Amino acid sequence: xxxxxxxxxxISVVEKEDVTLDCVYETRDTTYYxxxxxxxxxxxxxxxxxxxxxxxxxEISGRYSWNFQKSTSSxxxxxxxxxxxxxxxxxxALSEDNYGQNFVFGPGTRLSVLP
Amino acid sequence: DAGVIQSPRHEVTExxxxxxxxxxxxxxxxxxxxxxxxxxxxxxxxxxxxNNVPIDDSGMPEDRFSAKMPNASFSTLKxxxxxxxxxxxxxxASSRTSGSYNEQFFGPGTRLTVL
Lengths: 115, 115
Fold this sequence. Notes:
The complex is a heterodimer of chains A (115) and B (115).
Chain A lengths: L2 E3 L4 E5 L4 E3 L2 E3 L6 E7 L6 E7 L6 E3 L2 E6 L4 E6 L8 E8 L7 E3 L3 E6 L1
Parallel strand pairs in A: 2-12
Antiparallel strand pairs in A: 1-4, 3-9, 5-6, 5-10, 7-8, 8-9, 10-11, 10-12
Chain B lengths: L4 E3 L2 E4 L5 E6 L6 E8 L3 E9 L2 E4 L8 E7 L2 E6 L8 E8 L9 E2 L3 E5 L1
Parallel strand pairs in B: 2-11
Antiparallel strand pairs in B: 1-3, 3-8, 4-5, 4-9, 5-6, 7-8, 9-10, 9-11
C-alpha cells in the first residue's frame, strides 16, 4: 500500500535561513504522482506542485524548489531565504491513480519562521 | 475562477443533531472529495465522487455519515446523529482528473464542533 512519511514534525528557523522539508514515499506502482500542499494558519490547503514519476527534473519556483529522487523515493521541498509568511504546515501527498483520485497525505511538517 | 466553496464555515451543534455540510466544486472539475482533518488522525479521505458517482466510500467512518452529489455543482456530507468525536475540520476538494491534471483544489473547510 502507498505511504508517505514526513519525519520532521516541527521545524523552526530564523527568517532568511534556508530550510528543507523531507518527504519519503512508498509505492509499488511505476506510475504515480507526488504533490506538496501548504496549510497556513488560516486553515486552507493550498496546492504548490505536482510531479509525476516519469519526470525527475528538479523544479524551482521563486524561493521554492523541489528535489525528486526516485532512487531514494524522496521528494524534498526547499525554501530559500525563508520569510515569516512561509510559516505553515506543509503536506506531501502521493497518488497511484492516473486520475489522482486516491491521495495519501503525509502527516505534515509544521514550519515556524521566526523574525 | 471561483475556488471550491464550502458552507457553513463554522458549525456548532449539540450531540444527536443532524449536520449537513455543503460543497460547490470548481466548475469543470469532474471529481469531488470529502476529507476530515483532526489533530489525532491528520487528513483522512472520507469519500470521493467521479462524474457525480460515488467511487470509494471506504473512508466513511460509520453509517451515521452519508454523502450525496446530485449534480456536478453540488455535494453534501451529512452526519446524523452527530457525536462529539465528529468534531473536526471537514474539507471538500475537487479536481479535473484529466491526464496529468489531477491535483486537488481544496475549499476553506467547515469547522464542526459537536457539544
